[in-house]
Amino acid sequence: MAITWRAVVLAALGVIFVAVLPAAGTVVAWALVVVLLCVLDVLLAASPRSIGLSRTVPPSVRLTETVSSVLTVTNLDRRRWRGVVRDAWQPSAGARQDRFPVDLRAGEARRLTTVLVPVRRGDRLADRVTLRAVGPLGLAGRQLSIDVPARLRVLPEFASRRHLPSRLARLRELDGRSAVQVRGPGTEFDSLREYVIGDDVRSIDWRASARRSDVVVRTWRPERDRRVLIVIDTSRTSAARVLDAPRLDASIEAALLLAALASRAGDRVELVAYDRAVRARVAGTTGPRLMPAIAEALAQVEPVLVEADWPGLVTLVRDRLSQRALVVLLSALEPASVEQGLLTVVGQLTRLHQVLLASVRDPELDALRRDHTDANAVFDAAAADRTELERQAVAGRLRDLGVEVVDALPDDLAPQVADAYLALKAAGRL
Amino acid sequence: MTQISGPGRTPGGTPAQPLGQIPVVLTAGTVVGDGSTATSTARARWRHGRTTAIVVALLVVVAALSVLPRPRTSGIPLAPDNPSPAGGRAVARILTDRGVTVEYVRTTAAAAARATSGATLLVTSTDLLDSAQVAALGRTTADLVLVDPSAPALDALSDGRADRYGTPRAPGTIVSADCSDADAQAAGRITVDASGLLLVDGAGVVCFPGDDRSTGAYLVLTGHRRLTALASAEPLTNGALAQAGNAAIALRALGRNDTLVWYVPSPQDSGTDQVSAPGLGDLLPPQAGLVGVQLLLVALVAAVWRGRRLGRLVTEPLPVVVRSSEAVRGRGRLYRRSRSLGHAAAALRAGTARRCATRVGLARSADAVTVIDAVARATGRPSEEIAALLYGPPPTDDGGLAHLARRLDDLESEVHRT
Asked: Which domain holds residue A107?
């Protein structure tokens, strides 16, 4: 049962009658007229149970991209079906318009398109479809809500992909297509080519130049087929909000950019999301299937409010990796939790692997530190200063243990992690 | 597309042909209805809401019973709606049954307005009336019946032709008419608890005399209008009406005319003015009330219209919303509340020293003397000043801390400049 605005107008018309015939009977009679007409309309309305419903949704969409959910309504009644259909979704699915006036002849079907612009990562679920069939008078109708399950997987946005072209250019530079300026241990000799102005004179191969009449330089190719293990920390420190998003979102962006870059560089990428248990894992996937697999795996990862189990992670890494690899920890540089957890076990990792710790830095911390407007603000600034000193002290101790530390603002984290990876690769430290 | 099974769902690809429906080929996963019928839904709703419905129905019945018109009674002595022994409802009922219109009023203004010629005005007591009210009653042209009048009121209303002496007697004293008045003779004997009415001069008669033969319990003055006075209220009361000839004297005195204005003076009424200026209600047209009721009904219908949702609210599992900087702010509040000026100043100084050292290219492990020397060289300030600023004693109050913070800022900006 539901009534429409027309029933309100009908009731309001009674005011005229009451003004003309001011008697209690007029009020009662008009109320009866309204009720009777509404009941009649409900009885004459088509049944919401005679509608066939099916929903078509694309399996997944990248965050902030637009997608359409198509609901097909089919009138199975012998009567004309008029009314409203609501295709309900979770608020974060971002449905702009989910109510549709529908007028179907017997046997007719229509497609109702709900435009969705998801605002959150993860599985967005459709709620019930509500059918309100209105009677021929348009006064009242029958209503029914029906479960039509549907799920839309929202993948991470990967906004950091805009940094990919420039990093790939740097990679090509390393890759021997131009002379590398850095010659570290472990770089592999690639080929000889003619000297062009701008090349580092230290790259000139004098012996080869002596054999030919030209000056020849050596080019270097960084090592390939190294292993990169990306560990995303989903423990309580990843839940804290920096600007408008949890730390985890920045970590995911960094992981996606690093995975894209490393796979193009010919390294084998593995990914684990971990707090006290493995929340997501991508392993053994290479080539074009890697990025979709990572996006799919990270779509559903949410922060868990538990303390991370770092010894467990060390065991996990030892099980996964047999040879030297780059272990990228996308975690937080929280002095207390790092001292209690990571610092106690990171030595076991650095003995075997190159470890890179990437942490999101809160711009509010810097704002608080600089704010000296009044005494209260100065106390906050002092607290920010102390926290910053502790962070740097912890970062220093980690560096002493051989860990590369990247501490960057949310938007800068992904490119800085990529840069750190390229630097390690160029230096042959993988 | 999702495959669904369950009641009310069609198997994929087969024509759905329920009763009364037309054959349409549906695609796989199509849902029709939710397995319920209109009857089952109605039954479920009734089961769900019957307790509420019964309670509401009971409340409505109780409310309807409580507003049903009911005989109204009061406890005011001699009031026509007072059923107690001291009340006057018996007389009023008998008079009404005999065709007399009884108008019950509580104000002088109302009594004076209704007491026209050809009516009877009963004043049950004069104790609460001031002289202006008595004068207003005296200006009416109706026949007057006064019960237990005070001497000044009787004097004023009878133009000095009658007087009153307070002569209380035991309740239930039986007195005989002993006069020529027809009403008194018809009553014969009545019961009274007071007497003392005296005819001064003019046309009239005193009946039911007491020990003093010149005063009585009943006085009638004739002239341009009839004035009847009863020294005792007893003959009119419910309790004593059936005794002796009380009923006869009461009905004859009050039922002389077709209209009886029954005035019971009220302590709230102290003037003779008409009721105050017309209120807002009097300015509205008469149908305004009913239109208001109809508008209330319209509002009710509108509430039902807006109150029925098109499907339920959809919930959203929300993520954690703790800001990362909350821990730092909490630490700042701890410093503030515990007045840790020393800790706060040390943190500010250490932070500045650290940043200055980084800018001038010192290692993390550089000691205080090295830092002071390097900063002094970079800023051109004397070493003592730098030492006092970076490693001096802690400030003693909030102002000192703020001042220190500003000076550290200045120092840092100078190092930045070099």
From this structure: 1-155
